[in-house]
Design goal:
Its main location: cytoplasm. One of its GO terms (cellular component) is cytoplasmic exosome (RNase complex). It is found in: Cytoplasm; Nucleus, Nucleolus. Keywords: Cytoplasm, Endonuclease, Exonuclease, Exosome, Hydrolase, Nuclease, Nucleus, RNA-binding, rRNA processing. The protein is built from 26 helices and 38 strands. 30% of the residues lie in helices and 24% in strands. The protein folds into 4 domains: 189 residues, 5'-nuclease (Rossmann fold); 205 residues, OB fold (Dihydrolipoamide Acetyltransferase, E2P); 221 residues, no CATH class; 114 residues, OB fold (Dihydrolipoamide Acetyltransferase, E2P) (Beta Barrel), CATH 2.40.50.140. The termini are far apart. The chain has 971 residues and is an alpha+beta fold. The strands form 11 sheets. It has a 5-stranded parallel sheet, sandwiched between helices. Strands 8-9-10-12-11 form a 5-stranded mixed β-barrel. Strands 15-14-13-16-17 form a 5-stranded antiparallel sheet. Strand 35 and strand 36 form a beta hairpin. It is globular and about 95 Å long.
């Protein structure tokens, strides 16, 4: 039989239309219970046990559970435990969950798919005895609650009539809606709250810890600490009227009493200060902000401030004294004054599960404890657990549930333990989870998309391509690289240009990943989700499976590979005469490291084909580089380090700044040129959906502190254009301080905005501009093994030269914008994860190790100077006592008698590790020179400490002679 479903929808023009659809109902849908003797089940269709064992003392008899939508949405962590089984998930609930939270929906589907869990999905919306119409004037939520109750009654009746066992399983409805429970009881349905059910479960220790503390956040309380949030209707009205603004909250890493709101239309982020100004916003939340009148605007607090409470301080706020002490009154014309406001409402929470450690209560037997997140921008969380003795020594995962007005901290619940604090696997897991890096093993569906391990290039595929196997092509990469994306070749061409210049052919050959990663396959969807390969110290999280990344797609020396080639004809001045693109087959003559390539170029006794190609490439690259810089491209810098890893323990044994050779620049120049050439082609062929990369010019406000610091060193830098800025940086040199110019470029990098992927149809042509590279258009084409952006670009380029068919989603601007959003997010998170890995390994390296090194001042704060160790590329705060130092807020300098500390100054510091806080172990920087009595570390004390450390290291080596000799044999 069938009925009709009627609903209203809004068109793009804002018109409301009625849609009527046929809705088919059946009477042969299976109940899934092994207790039923009527439904025509096959053996593999029984999901629910015939005699389910009860684990809840409230209901001693066999029973099945039916859950309402809110139980699934709020208690998914409980459901993922093995405790609950024989659960019926109704279609009504499944569809509501899908509509409200896709992440939880996917987690629920995984539970249902696990046959051991015995979760049965019943299609109640298509069963003639369980489907109900929505009554006139009835809210959708009330209709769905009624549908759930109807299904519960049907199951109870169905099983009582058709059961093959003596005592048929009864139905228990779990719902936290008090009104729904009341109506259910009136209808004869057995029901209870999820809390009552779980509290009476036996045999599953820790299950109660996973209950969500879903307290109404705006519940009135005479003890309220925070202002009430506005309702959604009030927020909507305020934004529409221009009194409020929507933004994204970003918490400060350095000051827990400060944050900003990034709002479209404002050059500067909106400053939010104090508990009441932040008003329970958590980093990443979408918030409604009220901006204060201009006379109430302030400058950010120039202080490093951490929430250092050793124990739960209770529900009290103490920030006013801190704010008054560290915030200077507004003065007219102060160019550091920032638009200031306060959070008045939460539009959408962006809460996730957070990694960290448990701070146990000092009260014996207490169940309420504080959780300290690994991410400093996340506030501490109150959780309840009866496992504190066990969890105190472990990294744990906690989910946020709510943040009531009368609680200093948000409330949450324990999810799972990750491993012992300090265990490297556990610490790596923390990094990956904290930065939302997908790192699960590739699914069977993904692996099924791969070719066999012994795959070779078919002859018919070679015939479709340009055969370049005879060309002298080679790759140049960092040492240990196995996912080789790119290779190059260059050779002289006969004849000259009309101007009498020599002619060369130069080719960039990129792994043809799209031959294996076809659109809309499981492999493609996984790569799109991951978006990028993530590089940790000693570990790589691949975007595509290893068979492709390190084998079939990797352009290894001496092996035939499929490639996508960009080939230019150029003159000896590196002017492009002609460009062509084609799919190709190559056989790399050599896979070299940067250092090996540099040695080959410099070796005058070598004149073979590989070296000849490299020398042509190197000479042309220098001319390309000069052209870019003359055009205004910025040559910036960032502190990069490389660890030497012990082959057995996989722990770092040494660290050093990365060396940059001419061959690094050689490869970079041709990758940039290929990316620009491809971008030009795509924009011409696909003006609405080309995937491009832009770098917006930084707003002038970004340079303010940087320019003031440079001026203190005697340099007036011109930042009016990128060309003027580049020229200024080139001329800012201090004789005798070779690192000064590098430091200046590191500081300049931090003034920049993030580069972004975008779809060409979403921006004007003027907005395509890449500020850092000083080029009007740019994309990413050269690394498809490790970047999904390049995969999309390859597909577009292939379609433009008729090498492959296009497909609908490739030309869909809405899809393109969504892909770009994910690319930007994953790229940013991968960078953060890489930095966190460096920090973790630095802590391992400096455990029980002390170094005395030169340092440069990066920034001057009210209570610290931020320093960088050039030798290691490490940085951090050197705290200064207020009783010895005086801070000049206008000039950003610290003075102690005749000693003045300002940005770019050189210091000598002692570097050691502070492990007193297990959650946030940190490098400690202590001043050695200039010497300040009573503050600087005494040089004799430094030498004694180093001697003791060296003795300990020597002793440890002597205690493990076998290990050391084994290691040397491996080398």
């Amino acid at each position: 039989m069938w009925t009709t479903k009627t609903f209203l929808t809004k068109t793009k023009r804002g018109n409301i239309i009625k849609i009527v659809r046929e809705h088919y109902l059946r009477d042969d849908l299976l109940c899934g219970s092994a207790a039923c003797n009527t439904c025509p089940h096959k053996d593999d269709e029984f999901v629910l046990d015939g005699k389910p064992k009860s684990i809840c003392t409230l209901f001693s008899y066999p029973h099945y559970l039916i859950l309402d939508t809110n139980v699934v949405l709020h208690q998914i962590d409980v459901l993922e435990e093995d405790a609950l089984s024989n659960v019926i998930i109704l279609q009504t609930v499944l569809e509501e969950v899908k509509h409200q939270n896709t992440a939880i929906y996917q987690r629920l589907l995984e539970i249902i798919a696990n046959k051991k869990r015995k979760f049965y999905s019943f299609v109640n919306e298509h069963h003639k005895d369980t489907y109900i119409e929505r009554n006139p004037g009835e809210k959708q939520n009330d209709r769905n609650d009624r549908a759930i109750r109807k299904a519960a009654v049907w199951y109870e009746t169905h099983l009582s009539i058709n059961s093959v066992v003596g005592q048929f399983p009864k139905i228990v409805l779990l719902t936290d809606d008090e009104n729904n429970r009341k109506i259910a009881q009136e209808e004869g349905i057995v029901c209870c709250s999820i809390k009552d059910y779980v509290e009476n479960v036996t045999g599953f220790i820790g299950l109660l810890d996973k209950l969500s503390k879903n307290v109404a956040p705006e519940a009135c309380s005479k003890d309220a600490l925070y202002p009430a949030h506005l309702t959604p209707a009030q927020i909507h009205e305020g934004i529409r009227g221009g009194k409020l603004h929507q933004g994204t909250f970003r918490a400060s890493r350095d000051n827990f009493l400060e944050g900003t709101a990034v709002i479209n239309g404002f050059e500067k982020p909106i400053l939010l200060q104090g508990h009441s100004g932040i008003n329970r916003a958590v980093d990443g939340d979408s918030i409604a902000v009220e901006i204060f009148p201009e006379e109430e605007w302030r400058r950010p607090m120039d202080i490093v401030l951490e929430d250092k409470a050793d124990d739960d301080p209770g529900d009290q706020l103490e920030e006013e004294a801190v704010l008054l002490k560290n915030t200077k009154p507004v003065e007219k014309g102060d160019d550091e004054i920032t638009p200031t406001g306060r959070v008045v409402g939460i539009i959408r929470r962006k809460w996730r599960q957070y990694c960290g450690i448990l701070m146990r209560s000092k009260f014996p037997g207490a169940t309420r404890h504080l959780f300290v997140p690994a991410e400093k921008r996340i506030p501490r969380v109150r959780i309840e657990t009866r496992q504190s003795d066990v969890l105190a020594s472990q990294r744990i995962l906690v989910a946020l549930d709510s943040w009531p007005r009368n609680s200093r901290y948000p409330l949450g619940h324990f999810v799972r333990a990750l491993g012992q604090i300090g265990d490297k696997n556990a610490e790596n897991e923390v990094i990956l989870l904290e930065h939302d890096v997908p790192h699960a093993r590739f699914s069977e569906a993904v692996l099924a998309c791969l070719p066999p391990n012994d795959w070779t290039i078919p002859e018919e595929e070679i015939k479709k391509r340009v055969d370049l196997r005879s060309e002298c092509i080679c790759s140049v990469d960092p040492p240990g690289c196995t996912d080789i994306d790119d290779a190059l070749h260059a050779k002289a061409l006969p004849g000259h240009t009309d101007d009498g210049l020599k002619r060369y052919e130069v080719g960039v050959h990129i792994a043809d990943v799209t031959h294996f990663v076809r659109p809309n396959t499981a492999l493609d969807k996984e790569a799109a989700n991951r978006s990028t390969t993530v590089y940790l110290v000693g570990r790589r999280i691949d975007m595509v499976p290893d068979l492709l990344s390190s084998n079939l797609c990797s352009l290894r020396g001496g092996e035939e590979r499929l490639a996508f080639s960009c080939v230019w004809e150029v003159d000896e001045n590196a002017n492009i005469l002609h460009t062509k693109f084609h799919k190709s087959v190559i056989k790399s003559a050599a896979a070299m490291t940067y250092e090996e390539a540099q040695i080959a170029i410099d070796d005058k006794s070598r004149n073979d084909a590989i070296v000849s190609s490299l020398r042509i490439l190197n000479a042309l690259a220098k001319k390309l580089n000069r052209k870019r810089l003359d055009n205004g491209a910025l040559s910036l810098s960032s502190p990069e380090i490389r660890f030497q890893i012990d082959s057995e323990t996989h722990d770092p044994v040494e660290v050093q700044a990365k060396k940059i050779l001419d061959t690094n620049s050689m490869v970079e120049e041709f990758m940039l040129l290929a990316n620009i050439s491809v971008a030009q082609r795509l924009a011409a062929e696909f003006p609405q959906c080309a995937l491009l990369r832009r770098h917006p010019a930084p707003p002038p406000a970004n340079f303010h502190t940087f320019l003031k610091a440079a001026k203190q060193q005697g340099f007036d830098l011109d930042v009016s254009t990128n060309k003027a800025f580049s020229k200024s940086l080139d001329s800012a040199v201090i004789p005798g301080r070779p690192f000064f110019n590098t430091l200046l470029r590191i500081m300049a990098t931090r003034c920049m905005q993030q580069a972004q992927y975008f779809s060409s149809g979403s921006k004007t042509v003027e907005e395509y501009y890449h500020y850092g590279l000083a080029c009007p258009i740019y994309t990413h084409f050269t690394s498809p093994i490790r970047r999904y952006a390049d995969v999309i670009v390859h597909r577009l380029l292939a379609a433009s030269i008729d090498c492959d068919v296009t497909h609908a989603t490739l030309l869909d601007t809405k899809v393109a914008n969504s892909v770009c959003d994910n690319l930007n997010y994953r790229h940013r998170q991968a960078q953060y994860a890489g930095r966190a890995s460096v920090t973790m390994n630095t802590h391992i390296l400096f455990n029980k190790r002390v170094e005395i090194e030169l340092a440069s001042v990066l920034a001057v704060k009210r209570n610290a100077v931020h320093v960088l160790i050039p030798k290691y590329g490490l940085e951090g705060p050197l705290y200064l006592p207020s009783d010895k130092f005086t801070y000049n807020e206008e000039e950003h300098i610290q003075t102690c008698g005749d000693i003045v500390l300002k940005t770019f100054d050189e210091l000598t510091v002692r570097l050691s590790l502070d492990s007193s806080n297990l959650q946030h172990r940190k490098l400690v920087f202590e001043l050695v020179k200039p010497h300040i009595p009573g503050f600087s570390v005494d040089i004799m004390e430094v030498e004694d400490t180093k001697t003791e450390t060296e003795k300990e290291q020597k002793k440890r080596k002597e205690e493990t002679p076998a290990k050391s000799s084994k290691k040397s044999k491996k080398k």
